[in-house]
Amino acid sequence: MSPSSTTPQATVYGCPRQGPDRELKKAIEGYWAGRVTAADLHATAAGLRRDTWRRLAEAGVTEVPTGDFSLYDHVLDTTVAVGAIPARHRAAVDADPLDGYFAMARGTQDVAPLEMTKWFDTNYHYLVPELGPDTVFAANPAKAVSELREALLLGHRARPVLVGPLTYLLLAKPAPGVDPGFQPLTLLDRLLPVYAELLAGLRAAGAGWVQLDEPALVQDRTAAELNAAARAYRDLGALPDRPRILVATYFDRAGAALPVLAKAPVEGVGLDFTGPAAGNLDDLAAVGGLPGKRLVAGVVDGRNIWINDLEKSLATLATLLGLAGQVDVAPSCSLLHVPLDTTRERDLDPQIARWLAFARQKTAEITTLARGLREGTHAIGAELAANRADLASRAASALTHDPAVRARAAATTAEDARRPQAYRERARAQWARLKLPLLPTTTIGSFPQTTELRTARADLRAGRLDRAGYRERMAAEVREVIAYQEKAGLDVLVHGEPERNDMVQYFAEQLTGYLATQHGWVQSYGTRYVRPPVLAGDISRPRPMTVDWFRYAQDLTDRPVKGMLTGPVTMLAWSFVRDDQPLADTARQVALALRDEVTDLEAAGAAVVQVDEPALRETLPLRAADRPGYLAWAAEAFRLTTSGVRADTQVHTHMCYAEFGEIMTAIDELGADVISLEAARSHMRVAHELAEAGYPREVGPGVYDIHSPRVPSTVEAAALLREGLAAIPAERLWVNPDCGLKTRGWAETRASLDHLVEAARLVRAEL
Ligand code: GLN
Ligand code: ZN
Fold it and tell me: Ligand 1: which atom is nearest the Cα of residue 656?
């Protein structure tokens, strides 16, 4: 019996783009290097799309998404589709659309790229549209139409995907030179006719449905923004000849946007029912459901890697059946955010591998659920039994339940997360021990990760270099880094982090409870893919992780060397985290393991320990109501990590940004003795903001912008420092770069740090 259009089907909003062996990355980078022709690049891309659709169809997905594929970024693709090419890229795009596209993404010698920022609270980065009052939109449906045609020609039923007009405008920023107060949403009336044209083009090419992604609707929106959404979908819905419209929301609950979408004249709405978005279920009932509409129910977590609880999802779906005209089963969001296929993970314990679901496994889960809905649970009895067994094995595993870790976490008290001495007392003790000059100089931790260092790591992995040989290379680098810093006259030294492949992975590899994958790549941006570690179980530290390298470095110098750790929030943010306990519990376990490392560093002679938390702000929940709870456990985890030390041990932290906004209070609640942060580009604005907020402790606003190869002059660094002094008294001001130096070369690093030290001397002399 062929399924009628109102029986539940499985569908996905989008798929990973890279191919099983990151073929796309190789083809694109080959094209940039001139080794691959444009035709070959397009052929590789088309082949990957074809394979993706075929896999979906074979798994039982009856309508495949198209247009979600991208050579770089789907928001940039939307910018092209609506013709919002920035003026500075116009000529390049006109001369050659493909090269112009990559120029917008990456910049050229002469022209800056679009700014890149995080896609909601994921680790995917998109290119920020630049709009202004003079922006003229023009529909360019070429990509959307040709990818749709490709799928149709291959015999698939297909649903083109576009970023929706609200989300597109809400993610945009004022173009350079435009009044920074300009609100891109004011362009909605100009943009809607362009969307109308895109929809008409897709309809003409054979689209029955079009999916418009509106994740911006799961953030707190003003009444004006919700009105704009209502107006947009009323207008698009009223178009005479258009495909049916599915408005997809994901990453959180739709909240006040839900009644707007329920009333809108569109045929379908996608809602997320996982994690914090589970509240959509009650909200949907409260608005009276979506009678006559197609509900795409995101019941399988699209951005984490654990198997679904199929029975629980079936129960949710059963409730939803009464709340919409048609219910389809989907992952909560595009599968872009998870790796491809767990069956490639041959190094994982097979039992543990069964707890994991990547894109392919998630696709199987949704088709199983859809079949269960259509045919009854007896039809999926075998799948349910296997799922129940895998969930039970995970719940009962020694990996997920280490009694010692649990007992310790349970015994943790508020006292453990508070340093016993008041800040003033600590500051005095640290001052007496460290004997630093006013305006002490330091760096953030990493020194250049040179080709030699990366080659040594690759050689170690490939067996061309043994452990001892590898360690000697790293030791040589530490000697060089220490010698340079002494010569340059820096006050608090670092060992340079040469041995760290990545600031999270390095620790994940050494902590029990973390797993590593071989092929678990996910797109971070463009052709950059990361393999996040999997925080799978209870976390413990079998042995010290950084103490040997610290000791080695400290033995080389009489100056203090900073112990250097990644903080608990960042350890969670850049990993796949377990979903079987609250994040706060996981963070506490990681914090306790790190706390032991801090204590061991102190015992090994560290007078200064830095615990980096660059991810603190990016993990902020999308809905304001969820933020205080998050910030409370995040700050507590940091304090638990750092509060086990003596008064005269100085705790530093580092953040890679200056816009604190609503996390200002949380920053204070970390209680770090010293915080370093980015400030060079914003002329020390953050120093003033901290001062205005009454921030009581020491601050190191960066005076060297490490995001650029440019070497700041002594005069420039000194000017920034004086600006810092206008906000923070000399007794509490540090001199440091904005961030770690791992992406810089040695020549510019030396010159820049020499200038930084010189600037500190100059300004000290003026005090
Ligand atoms: N200590 C790290 C480094 O210097 C901090 C990196 C970061 O802030 N992202 O590289
Ligand atoms: Zn940083």
Answer: 8
